[in-house]
């Protein structure tokens, strides 16, 4: 039986951004020190935006070995990369344009991303093993673009699933599959705001009807970082 999750609770969005940035910077440094590279999948949405904006400022901008980081995404809306709803566009505006990460080490989740994912060192099952995966939580309990009841949740072989019927536009999405997410060394789920309260409560007690409850790293850490509004304090 999978145990319930005990989250780390912070007062509000600014503290969440700071804590998420510190958590991420620490794991980037560890990955580079131990394996000479860090493979990181970013998330979209307003909550991760705060983390990325903070990472682009001192001290994190200046003391983390960004030149050794390889950037991917946990999911993406299938829109032009400069579209305001693109997760890539958000990350570029608040993070990537301000960091010394080489452009050839940034891999947008578009087209057929499998070759780029195959560049990541694999685990013993042949799955790319991300050092860090960032995720958010939707009001319906979805994470990445894994929505309740969607066929993508059942994908056991592909690294990336195509979602053609997301509950809200844009309907076309790409998302890392659960086996890839659960192969990561470290997964951070960031949650803020009272609108997430009900979904978060269900996920923390591992309600299997909600996709975020199915994030259970096989041999890695899972951290839920939430603010008081989301936890209902």
What does this structure look like?
By secondary structure, this protein is of the alpha/beta class. 28% of the residues lie in helices and 18% in strands. Helix 1 crosses helix 2. The mean pLDDT is 96.
Keywords:
18% strand; 6-stranded parallel sheet; 3-stranded antiparallel sheet; 233 residues; 8 helices; alpha/beta; Rossmann fold
Please write out the topology.
Layout: E1 8-10, H1 13-35, E2 38-42, H2 46-55, H3 60-63, E3 69-73, E4 75-77, H4 87-94, H5 114-117, E5 132-135, E6 160-163, E7 173-176, H6 178-181, E8 186-191, H7 197-204, E9 221-227, H8 228-231
Helix pairs in contact: 1-2
CATH architecture: 3-Layer(aba) Sandwich
Overall pLDDT metric = 96
Strand order of the largest sheet: 1-9-8-5-2-3
Number of strands: 9
Summarize the structure.
With 233 residues, this protein is of the alpha/beta class.
